[in-house]
Amino acid sequence: MSNSDWFDRLMAYDVIRHLPDHLKQYIVDQNYTGYTPVDHAVWRYVLRQSRNFLKDHAHKIYLNGLKQTGLQVEKIPSIEDMNDILSKIGWAAVPVDGFIPPAAFMEFQAYRVLVIAADMRQLHHIEYTPSPDIIHEAAGHAPIIADPLYAEYLRLFGEVGAKAMSSNQDFQLYEAIRKLSILKESPDALQEEIDAAEKDVLLKQENLGEPSEMALLSRLHWWTVEYGLVGDMDNSKIYGAGLLSSIGESVSCLQENVKKIPYSPDAVNYAFDITTKQPQLFVTPDFRYLIDVLKEFARNMAFKRGGISGINKAVQCGNTSTIVYRSGLQVSGTFTDVIADAWNRPVYVNTSGPSNLSFAGKQLDGHGKDYHKEGFSSPIGLLDDSLIALEDMTDAQLKENQIIVGESVTLNFESGVRVKGLLRSVLRREERIILMSFVDCRVTLGERILFEPSWGVYDMAVGEKIVSVFSGAADKDAFDQPSKVSRTRTIKVSYDDSKKALHELYGRVRRYRNGDGPDSLLSEVLERLNHEFREDWLLRLEVLEIYEKESREPVQQKQIRAYLKQLAAENHEYTKLINDGLNLLHGGKE
């Protein structure tokens, strides 16, 4: 199947088809045939271990959620198979290339779409990978969304996060984290490269400055969606994807040396480090409380408060932002200046460079970036000596105030801003005035000139106050906002002949387990392992599992066990993995 055919099939799912274009650019081909037999074996090992441990230590929805989201133990899931099932609960999944920018990640969630990093962790990172992979995304995030209340929390978090103001420092930190995660998952990365990348992450964390809304929200996301515990403080259960997908930290996180803190809005004060295990975790009593805390945090965000504080955040971030007038008019661009009065109320705003005007998330005809290519500026507030906001005036009230289309008009605002020119048009939406256009217009504030007649048409936004400020353009597709896509791409691992030969052995055992192969196949595989791949432990475990299940080859079973125990004793990195694998076999069931 070609990439275009695969993408067309993905677009057949209703939730995905309605994604805006600026999000669709992040979607990549899962390339399912690129997964090796070793990749499937790693998935199988992690899922079997996780199910065995998490059936007692994860939120009660976890095991049922695995089934409800289409995840099978025996093979890595295809995104299409997942979507066939996710669509039944109003969600979908799309594959992406590793970490994507937080704002895009959040916005996908707002549309009820899980982003799935399609890569698979390497065998030497089987317990935990610093890079997002399909185990983390599919087996970590997906099962818990089977709980309707938690699914709503994820959607709401995405909705709030998509509006959060971010800074250039946030993106630089994201880039540093992405680079580090890619290097750590690369088999060819030099240790000095990894050390340098770790130092860069720490440096950018230390120099982040005052945390932006996105930085603070990322902390809430980390301590809940990624590393959250739920229930009683003395008997909490795991629901965070970072823990559910780590067969190492899912065990260690419940130990007493990891401090447990009741979850509250104070969690935003705890920064996190992706390079190490977490020294503390937060416990929420239930998923409803997650929503309550998120709403409490959101009440103080710029998109809720608007006003001078929100506009100042837009100016400080230096990126495309949107302010919303009380009339409903949305002005999008890079805000460079705001004038405030003696009571610290905003009275005039400026953008620099391409800007556009929208209403209800749709660009107004004739008011795109090409038209407002030099920027946009406008007053905010009430007219002097007026008891009614300009946006609320009827045509009759406009006439009473000598505001007549086709005639010279003077608007004196309470702030002292004066707009004087020939009124060319008045634009209404939902019975409110949102925009007035003037020609031969001069705008002043005392002696200060804000707009000259020679500058062209003066399009004046109408609104008593700014009710909301949020990150990005109101109509992102029309604005054609350049998304901050990382320059660093994930590394696709290439394999030498030796690794390909090992993959072939894994594939033969996999096919045998599915009923394809003679009885002698396993002995032949063991002989190859003993001569060529003495360090491999996972395939030996799989062969031992089949022998035990079929109750045959007791001598070879004993030899495999002895060899695995020797490997565990001599290689500390294998000790827990091998012992957990043997214990699972000894238990006789998952």
For this entry, give a set of tags.
alpha+beta, Phenylalanine Hydroxylase, 6-stranded antiparallel sheet, 590 residues, 18% strand, 24 helices, 5-stranded antiparallel sheet
Write a concise synopsis of the structure shown:
Helix 20 packs parallel to helix 22 and helix 22 runs antiparallel to helix 23.
In terms of topology, how is this protein built?
Layout: H1 3-10, H2 14-17, H3 21-24, H4 37-57, H5 61-68, H6 79-86, E1 92-96, H7 102-110, E2 113-117, H8 134-141, H9 148-161, H10 168-185, H11 191-206, H12 213-226, E3 229-232, E4 235-238, H13 241-244, H14 249-252, E5 259-262, E6 280-284, H15 287-298, H16 302-305, H17 307-317, E7 321-325, E8 329-340, E9 346-359, E10 362-363, E11 377-379, H18 395-400, E12 408-412, E13 417-429, E14 432-445, E15 448-451, E16 458-461, E17 466-471, H19 476-479, H20 497-513, H21 521-532, H22 538-550, H23 554-570, H24 572-587
Which radius of gyration do the C-alpha atoms yield? 29 Å
Q: Could you give a short account of the major beta sheet?
A: 6 strands, antiparallel
Helical percent range?
40-55%
CATH architecture descriptor of the largest domain: Orthogonal Bundle
CATH class bucket of the largest domain: Mainly Alpha
How many structural units, i.e. domains?
Answer: 3
Average of pLDDT: 91
Give the CA-based shape.
elongated
What is CATH's topology name of the largest domain? Phenylalanine Hydroxylase
